[in-house]
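Researcher: We're teaching a course module on how sequence relates to structure. For the next exercise, students receive a sequence and then see the predicted structure as tokens, so they can try to spot secondary structure elements on their own. Here is the exercise chain.
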Amino acid sequence: MTSAAPARRLSAAGFLATLALGLAILFGAPHALDTFGLVQCTGFAALAMFGLSQGFVWGFAGVMCFGQAAFLGLGGYAYAVAVLNMGDSSVPVLLSILVPMLFAGLLGYFMFYGRISDAYIGVITLTVSVILFQLVNATSGSQYRIGVAELGGFNGIPAIPALNAPGHPDEPLDIEGIWYAAMGALILVYALLRGILASRLGRVVVAIRENETRAQLIGYDPRLYKLIAFMIAAGVAGLAGCLYANWGGFISPTVFALPMSAQVIIYVLVGGLGTLIGPMLGAVLIQALIIAAGSQSAVDSNLGLGLVLVGFVLLVPQGLVPVARSLGLRLLERRPRRVAGTAQDGFATGSAR
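Model: And here is the predicted structure for the students to work with:
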């Protein structure tokens, strides 16, 4: 058995286990949790999708985006403005994906085709996020509106209509319905990204991350594939922004702020870079830790959270999922060796007889 075979088996098993666990949580949470717990889990699902977008573009495409919050905010605001003007949420959901993708396509074209280095890409994306924060923050006043939707400046947009069944704007989803929509979307996006990575497009993207020069020499254009991955991640973050706006029924410029961009990077580092499960797991763990830290007064929550994160990164630099995967591979590689050793011992004993 080659060394790649256990890795493939473990990867397939992890994918199936993640889908099974996701479906169990999807249908089990409404029966196991009260209303408050279900609302919290809906927020976890939205932020897990946000982490998934960062994990894809950074861990697999090798594009370090420090301003992923820009696409989260664009998706949230696109949904809020569109649904207030249209009533029905069907088209606004699509716009929450398309608007960030188009913006990422325009921004990414100038970055990748302008041959901007990786370090400057991080700086540019972070700067764009800060600019959007300042821009939206300065839109207080009734004159700043798109149709009937007032942007609200630092006060944000309140009372955002919830998702509804397609074509039935007078039937908005309740809390349980929003949960099913958020968690179901997370499972679908995870499966979609997994399928993309298993396709030719995904393999080329990963190959460019590993060795851009070699991929270019065999005929692939790294700029194009990086741009595609960048746009896909932006669309995922935009959908997360739509779910985030539905979770609270509110959106404000804080979604563009630096804490959101830093937070999603921490999700990926804690869960594990180069995985899809890791960023989702990291998002849930960090958000649960933030809630727990904020509910006590013995230790300053920000200081305590910072110490925990620094200690975690120092002790488990690879992240939770890569460490678990490494342990699983060791167990799988030991089993064939033991079987082979037993067979050889038996053969030797038989020949002696």
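Model: If you want an answer key for the exercise: The longest strand covers residues 145-146. The two ends are 31 Å apart (CA to CA).
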